[in-house]
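Q: Could you fold this chain for me?
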Amino acid sequence: MTTTSTHVLCDLSHLGLLEISGVDAVTFLQGQVTNDVKLLVGNNAHYTAYCNPKGRMLALFLAFAHYDHLHLQLNRELLEPIMKRLKMYVMRSKVEIKDVSDDIIRFGLNGPEAASMLVPVFTKIPTQDYKLVSLENGAILKLPSLNHDARFEIFTDASNAPIIWEALKANCQLVEKPYWDWLEIRAGIPDIELATQEQFVPQMLNLDILNAINFKKGCYTGQEIVARTHYLGSVKRRTYLAEIVATEAPHAGDKIVDATKNEVGQIVRVATNTSNGFDALIEMRIDAQETGAVYWNNALITTKNLPYSLNI
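A: Sure. Below is the predicted structure, expressed as structure tokens.
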């Protein structure tokens, strides 16, 4: 995977987007996810996990409020089953859940001058990670990025999308899902896929470090396990950034082993990197990471520094 430009533009239609609306939307969602939905006030976003009763993750959402409703962005392959599961718990609540993945058009922009590139198109640009600005021609969310880059997600409609796309495309290389996944991996952002559903307690994917768990909010599905893991200090597995040099592609859910072939973890998220290998987020035992070499399919895994500290 290579680029000839320091700025990239990506169509994000590969991501699913749910809209949660109705007078009971906040109360309903508060009882379902790990983060505090009441903190979403229209100018911010946060990650939040959706767990089963055993505290194992079913999905990871990027959540934000927009006017009178909430949005949950997630891996699109999970959208239908997750939407169906959420609807099961609506009961008599005044809540509507619908798929708006094709109604709201989304672009991703990354590069050192990305903010400046948005200025001719939008009247205001967010300057802090997870800040959301809503304008007449769309909304802009600033996402975490590495080094001197800035990364944004743009939300708009069918009438404004072509104008925004053409304005940004002039100074960008167009990339597809694998490159955007790579940017997410480098930023230390995990994901849940069909292959990894119900494999992880949120702390295993560093969601406590990513502020995707609120330990002061009320009850939600799986809370007892998530809280116990936190308060007993029993996080024995973490997610690490790694590079894998191999001729075939690893996949999420593939097992990681130590030198004696004992299983010590698995791949969470993987994408081709710019060095003819693969960058991945791998979840594994902390002691295995600290004491010896680990492998995927006989290929040595080299761990790299995450953009955040695991020492909390």
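A (continued): The longest strand covers residues 57-66.
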